[in-house]
Write a structure and sequence with these properties.
Blueprint (H helix, E strand, L loop, with lengths): L2 H4 L9 H26 L4 H11 L5 E3 H7 L7 H10 L3 E5 L7 E5 L1 H22 L4 H24 L1
Antiparallel strand pairs: 1-3, 2-3
Length: about 160
């Protein structure tokens, strides 16, 4: 089934770029649905889950608040609000720098690490179930093309 058929469109796309952009949006929407539902049952949004994974990936389990925002898969306008909720739930803690009071380091707690450990296998299964119908070669090629599509935006983003 084509995207036009899925969307029940009667007109043609204005360009191949428009079709690709809408195809990407449609795909992201469908692929993210099982993950959204799963994370919701654990009281997390995808952005909160991303923050916890970022922190777990650090050697000491902590980062300054600004660095977290820069490393997120999707940029969130209010990382502070997300951190407030994670802190309230006991998943992260904040520590203000002694040398520069403007810098606040965020650390993942043992509770946050434990929660993530319990989510790892089910999340792997969701990813496999969602994209397991593709061959390894197709996955590599799709990853390559998506990286290529993002390049002009990364150059602009790195200038900020």
């Amino acid at each position: 089934m084509t995207l036009r058929q899925e969307l029940r469109m009667t007109r043609q796309f204005s360009s191949p770029e428009e079709e690709l952009n809408l195809n990407l949006q449609r795909t992201v929407g469908l692929l993210s649905r099982p993950m959204l539902q799963f994370l919701k049952t654990h009281g997390l949004s995808p952005a909160q889950y991303n923050i916890l994974r970022i922190l777990r990936g650090q050697p000491d389990g902590s980062l300054p608040c600004r660095q977290i925002g820069l490393r997120m898969v999707t940029r969130e306008p209010d990382v502070t609000r997300l951190l407030d909720r994670l802190e309230k739930d006991g998943l992260v803690s904040r520590l203000r720098s002694d040398t520069d009071r403007r810098v606040v380091r965020i650390s993942i707690t043992t509770t946050g690490l434990s929660l993530l450990a319990g989510l790892d296998e089910p999340m792997r299964a969701i990813h496999t179930e969602s994209l397991g119908h593709l061959t390894r070669a197709e996955i590599r090629e799709m990853n390559r093309l998506l990286v290529k599509a993002r390049q002009p935006f990364l150059e602009v983003e790195n200038d900020d």
